[in-house]
User: Which sequence fits this backbone?
DNA sequence: GTCTATACTGAGATAGAC
DNA sequence: GTCTATCTCAGTATAGAC
């Protein structure tokens, strides 16, 4: 990779992390990086795509670590399947540790997560990993209807994303601000949710009455 | 409220809903509303604050309905406290119904939710309601340590927000696309999570080893 | 293939007349 | 309260030097 491209990525990562995506203009970045404005568009095409590369550079190792932990859990549980808790651990621990190290960076993730524009590219990078985990959850919860498992996975991602990228002023205080402790809270919570009995038709009826 | 202000709010709500916040310029809005550009800054101060008012106008009734349902659940359970499921129902059903009616609008909520800037004002409007619900959850789950309950509430809000405002292409398919059914899935999931046993210290130790 | 200089279009914001 | 005119600054596009 060229030196210019490298400098742009490093500077953008720092400035985006410190001040947020919207607050940092391309002209701020080129001033600090000592490069030309057009170099950004030459190497990345647009500000959005620059952000995407900045984020992906840090997220890739997290996803690799997730898969490695899942591999290990499956090897340990063979010939059976690992329990929900172990799958959750593999999925949640790597990003929780990253969040503990660089909270600023996670705010950027939150932006990408909330934006529609980058979703397609985002999904492409995550899909192989997500699919591996979906299978693992299905094996750990064989009795749950498929549609309900899909929704529970959706809820899980929401809870995780909010924990990782949510605004700091809304985060509860934690003894020691220990990322492992918070990850533990989340694993306990999610395993309870994933293991809950499937939705009873009676509840849907009650909800319809109240609407 | 002046006619100009009303026209701006109505037009902004429609355009933001149809095309998203970033894609709609103030100049689009004034063209369709037939008002002057400066009128927006006179009445709202900035584009961000306009969005905030647009959103709040629709969210206020939802919060009122939440409190009314909680009141009713508490009256029915007196002299005891309502179970977690009933509290969740009061909290989740009103926004789920709104999301079913106007999915476009919920994407705007997602933006506010993800942005740091509006958080303070956002919080001020939600705090009284959130506090009422926090108390209700505490009464329904008297054995859970306070710190852990705070985190579980945080996770709950993340799961709800992701269900309501998440990108449509990531939402699982649902039989009949019934908002009550999805709300039911969420209530079943969250009551399992909230009722889960408190975090075991052993789990934290295991996580620390793997880090 | 890389990078620089410069120009273009459209955004949100504002001062001051009415 | 409302409008005109104007300002500043953003992201983007292109022509051409190395």
Assistant:
């Amino acid at each position: 990779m060229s030196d210019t491209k490298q400098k742009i990525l490093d500077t953008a990562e720092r400035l985006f992390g410190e001040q947020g995506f919207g607050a940092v203009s391309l002209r701020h970045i080129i001033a600090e990086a000592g490069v030309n404005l057009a170099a950004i568009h030459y190497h990345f095409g647009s500000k959005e795509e620059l952000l995407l590369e900045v984020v992906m550079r840090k997220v890739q190792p997290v996803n690799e670590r997730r898969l490695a932990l899942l591999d290990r859990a499956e090897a340990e549980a063979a010939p059976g399947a690992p329990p929900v808790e172990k799958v959750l651990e593999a999925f949640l621990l790597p990003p929780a540790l990253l969040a503990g190290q660089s909270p600023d960076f996670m705010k950027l993730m939150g932006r990408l997560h909330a934006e529609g524009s980058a979703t397609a590219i985002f999904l492409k990078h995550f899909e192989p990993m997500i699919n591996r985990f979906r299978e693992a959850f299905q094996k750990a919860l064989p009795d749950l209807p498929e549609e309900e498992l899909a929704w529970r996975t959706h809820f899980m991602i929401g809870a995780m994303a909010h924990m990782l990228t949510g605004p700091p002023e809304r985060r509860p205080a934690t003894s020691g601000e220990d990322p492992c402790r918070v990850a533990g809270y989340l694993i306990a919570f999610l395993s309870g949710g994933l293991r809950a009995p499937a939705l009873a038709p009676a509840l849907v009826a009650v909800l319809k009455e109240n609407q």
Observations:
- The domain at 1-45 of chain B is CATH 1.10.10.60 (Arc Repressor Mutant, subunit A).
